[in-house]
Write a structure and sequence with these properties.
The longest helix has 36 residues. The protein is 56% helix and 7% strand. It is built from twelve helices and four strands. A four-stranded mixed sheet has the order 1-3-2-4, with helices on both faces.
């Protein structure tokens, strides 16, 4: 563990204590409150960002901080991305600000001009992109966002905004309010973290750059520590899914929904099976090195039948998905059908190629 972690944690905690954080958490209200604290306008702008390169982008001009986030992100991830970028502002991070020529070059780049066609490069003063945790400023902003959001649904009297069946099966938990004392919340978070760990190990072994790392012991209360660890498990699984989505064969979604229909699954069960099948297929594809074009990969972009930014609801969802990846025999069935389709396609292509070679040989004779 880096010696910088205790300093980063203390700095983030000190800042969080001085902030007014809305409860229940609303990312737009949080940005507005942060704007008042900074004395600068903050604009939140959904955009078409290549998610294999960036999840979010902060561009500061002379009087406005523009925060761009991918419109393809799930609510849980888009909320995190915005708080991460606001964290850069509150923590006083400079990004490329210290190198005026570098800022100018990036601002004038074709990629940025395609994303922001109306932004004048001469007005850009600071650029920060959320793509990895290699830089210390990125790690600190990520830590800040994780600390804020891992406890964003807490209050003095209870936790959470969604009622959940605490088992890994069943659908009767979504949509009703519930309250947990801190001991119950900690117990639930610890159990959910354990249930998610096998899947987390699978995906992060393929995409290790999404892992931020654990905090040193003793820096958080027992409840806050449990919530933080669960939050990072959930977020890192979702981020790994985004990175791996180009390895999902284009036919997986149709095959998964076909099996779901054969089993008479309801909408939630179908979505769980679909998400699990996509994860399993992406891991297979990554291991085999068989990438697909992003536009052809019908993957992990929002397709759920509910939309939750709450940690408890998102963790509950992922526990069901993780259980399906590990135990549902239909995942093996979908993999088998996908392999059969791929083999059939390969054989057709091989026959077509052989036929063309034969035709060319006959012409040559």
């Amino acid at each position: 563990m880096s010696k910088a972690w205790p300093n980063m944690t203390a700095r983030c905690e000190h800042l969080i204590q001085a902030l007014e954080i809305p409860y229940p958490f609303d990312v737009s209200i949080f940005a507005e409150m942060s704007s008042k604290k900074l004395g600068r306008r903050i604009e939140l702008i959904p955009a078409r960002i290549a998610m294999n390169q960036l999840c979010g982008l902060l561009i500061s001009t002379t009087d406005v901080d523009h925060i761009y986030f991918s419109e393809d992100l799930q609510p849980f991830q888009s909320r995190h991305t915005v708080v991460h970028e606001v964290g850069h502002l509150l923590l006083g991070h400079r990004g490329l600000e210290g190198d005026g020529r570098q800022v100018e070059l990036v601002a004038e780049s074709n990629a940025l001009r395609m994303l922001l066609p109306t932004l004048s490069p001469t007005l850009v003063q600071r650029i920060l992109g959320h793509a990895s945790y290699a830089a210390a400023e990125e790690r600190e902003a990520e830590l800040f966002a994780s600390l804020v959001l891992s406890r964003s649904d807490t209050s003095q009297t209870g936790l959470g905004s969604h009622a959940l069946n605490l088992s890994s099966t069943g659908t009767s938990g979504f949509g009703r309010r519930f309250r947990l004392d801190h001991l119950s919340a900690r117990t639930w978070a610890e159990r959910a973290t354990r249930q998610l760990t096998p899947l987390w190990k699978q995906v992060t072994s393929q995409v290790p750059n999404v892992v931020l790392g654990n905090l040193p012991s003793g820096h958080l209360t027992l409840t806050d520590g449990a919530m933080y660890r669960l939050y990072r498990r959930v977020l890192e699984i979702l981020d790994a899914q985004l990175t791996l989505r180009s390895f999902i064969p284009p036919n997986i979604a149709d095959l998964a929904l076909e099996v779901a229909a054969e089993r008479s699954h309801d909408l939630v069960e179908s979505d769980v099976l679909l998400a699990a099948a996509e994860i399993a297929a992406s891991l297979d594809g990554h291991h085999a090195g068989s990438s697909n074009p992003i536009e052809d990969s019908n993957a992990v972009v929002p397709r759920r039948n509910y939309s939750a930014s709450d940690l408890f609801a998102e963790a509950h969802w992922l526990v069901r998905v993780a259980t399906a990846v590990q135990r549902d025999p239909d995942i093996s069935l979908i993999r088998h059908r996908a392999n059969a389709v791929s083999a059939q396609g390969y054989n057709v292509e091989a026959r077509r190629s052989a036929s063309m070679d034969g035709h060319q040989s006959n012409q040559a004779m």
